[in-house]
Amino acid sequence: MSAKETKKISIIEKSLKLFSKKGFYNTTIPDIAKAMKMSVGNMYNYFPSKEELAKCAIKYSTNVLAQDLREVNNMDISSKEKIYEFTRKYFKRVKKTPEIIEYFLRVYLSNREVFNQGCEGFLCVGEFVTEVMILLDEGAAKKEFRDQDFFAAFGMFMGSLGGFAFLSGEKVLEKDLLDYSDLIAENIYRALKYEE
Amino acid sequence: MRNKPKVVWIQALTCNGNTQSLLSSNASRFEQFLNQFELVYHPSLTHHTTLNDVLQSNASYDFLLIEGALTSNTQFLTLSDQSSTAIVEKLIKRSHYVIAVGSCASYGGVHAKFEHNDDVVGVQSVVGKKSACKSGHDTINLTGCPVHPEWILQTLYTLKAKGNIALDDEQRPIELYSHLAHHGCTRNEYFEWKVESKSFGLKEGCLFYEQGCRGPMTHSSCNKILWNDTSSKTRVGMPCIGCTETDFPRENMLETKKNIGIPAEVPLGISKRAYLSLTGIAKTFKIERLIGKLIDENR
Amino acid sequence: MKTVDIIERIEGEAKLNLHWKNNRVNDAYIEFLNFRGFEYMLEGKAPLDALVYTPRMCGICGQAHLLATVNALEDCYKNANIELHVTAKAKILRELGLIIEIVQSHIKWFYFFIMPDINAASMTPRKEFEPLKGQQWLKAQRASSEITKALALFAGQWPHTSYMVPGGVMCDPTHMDMILVENYIDQTIAYFEKELVGMEMQNYLTLSQTDDLKLLKGDIKSFLKMSFEQSLEKIGQSYNRFFVISDACGFHKGKIRLKNVSKFEMNKIKEHDDFTFELNSKIQKKEKYGWAKTVKYDNLFYETGPLARAMTQNRRFIKQLHKTYDDSVLTRVMARVDEIAYLLQTAKTMLHTLDISEESYIAPKTALKEINSTFGTGFIEATRGALKHELIIHEGKIKSYDVVTPTVWNLGPGEKPDYGVAQKALIGLNSLQEATIVLRSFDVCSVCTTH
């Protein structure tokens, strides 16, 4: 990776933290530059606008999740175990770098106007969606999952995980997030599993 | 090879579709074939020679063409009081080349789906891949249900001129079967941008997504060598049913098999992950020209 | 004395088993010794897969099987009370496909199948009819191959396209495609005029008297000369009962038992297998002598095919020929040739009423595989006559599929004295040569007969 790329990533990581602490609209390019100990002018060498940064940030954060799911998909385990495995990884991710998950939930999903050029549909989250497709397709091909509408399955899968990350962020959970992992995985699996 | 090679055409468990296909070849090409080859025997076409004449003769033949699946089971087929396998076993020794014409002759095809007859096979199962024919040339499979007339003629002319023909893993002439049915399909642009056909009966859209088209995973030159120089199934709107591949006929041929909405099979040689990523991206582009009618009748 | 001969050039082969008494055929059996089991193959398959399977019963009349399947599947919707719309455009494109198939088949049959025998039996055989070499034989191949291109324009290929589907057709041809189709039809009309009858088709279609045979030129003139020389107007008679199962392509559905055309009841069509081999060879009985089944209407044998169609449709020329020469070989051959002209004209009319701005296909509200239980029948006039498909769908799959082909009507077995149609026509003949020509006059298709 080039030095510029490495720098871009550290800007994104820093921005995600700021967005999550102060909110997307309350965080300005000068704020980010300050946190990065860079000049505002220099910042623009990396990202010409905050919208551009926002889009790169969503690609970055979903790619992190895509990477996690790809590792799980490549494991030689049943589709049921894959759901348990990924749920665990996802919740660990929520604990370790909550800003990545929160960015997706609080910024990407609720500020569509920022992303309507070049990030329509699945364009910026494609890698992750592809991995979900691989998970579902393989499960159905092996008759571990029942056949159903893709969006119904995708929505349920992401809704459960995202919704729980939201609860965790709101600090309303009584137990440690990871204590819920198998329960959530079980729910997801039940909604997908094959029925005779 | 003699100046005018001798051709013998035998039929076994068949619908005669490959014969009808041959007869549909362009007249100039068919006449040229009759001028340059001697069609010694064909059950539907020759008048003075019978199958018995051929069986009782000692003559050697340059090309033994077999249409239809073979069976040793005389309950379900006898030809001149013999089983079709017995006939082929006799004739192979007197023939220089053996060509299975059509999917049934190649591997059993549709006829292998009749479960009460447990011996329905292709020619190579009887005579071997390295066949006992006089030239020692491998058994040649011309798959297709039916096979294109030009594929038959071009194979014969090539063997006449060169004495051998390169075959793929399924014993098919490489030059005819290295393309996919997809190559040259007039709906290719719809495939590129993942625009599915909304239903049957439309000029617009690709038939791979819903209608079961096997074009991107079927080896054949259907869209390179057009049927009767005219058209192809996919060009008019009928999905490719993969009739040149050994898994034909499959189940649910007129719909795309999907798992939770995701195509179960993707184009040949492409990983599913790569295909799905590409599809996801391509689908986000809403290309007006490909969404609307190709020809607006009301303009 | 008994003789057993193998008959070829009938899309497969059959064994002709003749018993002779005083040099005449005293008893006759036609044995079909191949069985491919399509009805069994279809059990348990998805209903739409029948569209791929059934054309493959027969490489010669696959379009007819396809249309019979579509009709049967659409009837399944009707019996499940699910509304279905099929546009006039789709219906025309289906029937046009069938017409082209019939026309090219009749041309091939005349030159490749029956003329070689009649020519060989003639005292003055003519070189131009010799298979694979004769000019007229080659021109017939050219004509049949050219008109097949018209079919490829909207069906993709022939044989074995499945472009028809419940709800319509898969194709959506342009004006130019259909003009090209018409060009090929016109080309075939020109061929018919120049080579077959030696007169303009419009004039041909006005012929109405037996005497008008004298006006015919071209290859039909040669055929007639040889036929009278061989007395083909005197042999080949059977029951003189005719059956036409469908109105498609402008034909007239009905039966003729004695003289007049009357309606028939579908449930009186009964198929039986008294003389048909058992799948389980261990329980084979000796009266069973081939794979063909038997079909009768109200317990009577009926002839089906072009002659039957000309009779119920009241096509004057053929009716007059029938009045003069009965259901002889000559009448049967003339009915096939006459049908070429009738169908080419019908095709022209259809092309002129075709409105390509209509929908090609309107998707049924429910997929057949989602219907728990239904049944349907499809009827169509194929090249060789009445074709019936019948199926039951259970839990979204084909539970059973039954096909009654035209050749079962004409060639299905009976036994003395209740002979099948072709069997009866063989009784009393005095040579194998005659028997072969009489048998061929029914346009035998071994593969359809047993399927």
Write the layout of secondary structure elements.
The complex is a heterotrimer of chains A (196), B (299) and C (451).
Chain A: H1 3-22, H2 29-36, H3 40-46, H4 50-73, H5 79-96, H6 98-108, H7 126-141, H8 150-169, H9 181-192
Helix pairs in contact in A: 1-2, 1-4, 1-6, 4-5, 4-6, 4-7, 5-6, 5-9, 6-8, 8-9
Chain B: E1 6-11, H1 17-23, H2 27-36, E2 38-41, H3 51-56, E3 61-67, H4 84-92, E4 95-101, H5 103-107, H6 123-127, E5 140-142, H7 149-162, H8 174-177, H9 188-192, H10 233-236, E6 258-259, E7 262-263, H11 272-284, H12 288-291
Helix pairs in contact in B: 1-7
Chain C: E1 2-7, E2 14-21, E3 24-31, H1 38-42, H2 50-53, H3 62-79, H4 88-121, H5 135-155, E4 164-165, E5 168-169, H6 175-197, H7 201-204, H8 218-229, E6 242-244, E7 254-256, E8 261-262, E9 269-272, E10 294-297, E11 303-304, H9 306-312, H10 316-325, H11 329-353, E12 373-382, E13 385-394, E14 397-404, H12 406-411, H13 421-426, H14 432-440, H15 446-450
Parallel strand pairs in C: 6-11
Antiparallel strand pairs in C: 1-2, 2-3, 4-5, 6-7, 7-8, 9-10, 12-13, 13-14
What does this molecule look like?
The complex is a heterotrimer of chains A (196), B (299) and C (451). Chain A contains 9 helices and no strands. Chain A is an all-alpha fold and 196 residues long. Chain A has a single domain, classed as Tetracycline Repressor, domain 2 (Orthogonal Bundle). Chain A is elongated and about 60 Å long. Chain B folds into 2 domains: 6-176, 3-Layer(aba) Sandwich (Rossmann fold); 179-298, Cytochrome-c3 hydrogenase, C-terminal domain (Cytochrome-c3 Hydrogenase, Chain A, domain 2). In chain B, helix 1 crosses helix 7. The model of chain B has no long low-confidence stretch (mean pLDDT 95). Chain C has one domain: Cytochrome-c3 Hydrogenase, chain B (Orthogonal Bundle). In chain C, helix 3 (62-79) runs antiparallel to helix 4 (88-121) and helix 6 runs antiparallel to helix 11. The longest helix of chain C has 34 residues, at 88-121. Chains in contact: A-B, B-C. The interface between B and C is large, with 71 and 77 residues. Chain A: The chain crosses the membrane at residues 150-169.
